[in-house]
């Protein structure tokens, strides 16, 4: 039976997606793309808009671009870099060079690493303007779909992760809280400022590390489902047992990309369903 299920899962992603830009999805989809120990999230809207949040690390850039191109995507209406850590912006130069990007968002913080320098070089070369959006700003994507930027709430933090954009994606009655790598400090500020963090789905902060996802914060979000984007690095604490235990204690069903591959949330504006699966190629790579 297990084998049968596995074959079904494989089939799901072996068949190249048939949707093209001409055949727009009627539902909103949020793809938590399996880029290993990193983040990359694709939003496809009912009217056919495409938004990319983070681009994983440099080594998964080709895999990421293949995933995006399989949908016929050539243009992004918005690309958002949540914060300048390599596992979020390492693949961003490849995206900016190979796709048309109508608007590029990034928080106002520098980080002197190869990944950050590469990104800035590409931004200059391609003549891309950076929107340094702040908490309180929102992106009106189309009727029924908006993205609220709810954090960072301050301009100075000890940890780079706390500069992460925390985004609330709203599709009619449904809401998704995308935490990037925001940590305990950012979570505490959101609670103190009484920002509305309630959401149907939470993308857990910082790959499930114990530096994020405090119990009071999870209780306030009160999600029906959690998603963790992480690689196979449980020994290094991603995801941490403490966070898994908290989600278990709160009875929040959790989808993990290290176990399931790419996870896709499908929203009709009222209900949310999930699909997931690793490709045949990924299963082969794991066996080798
Ligand atoms: Zn990260």
From TrEMBL:
Keywords of the record: Signal
Spans traversing the lipid bilayer: none
Annotated Metallo-beta-lactamase domain residues: 37-232
Signal peptide: 1-22
Protein name, entry field: MBL fold protein
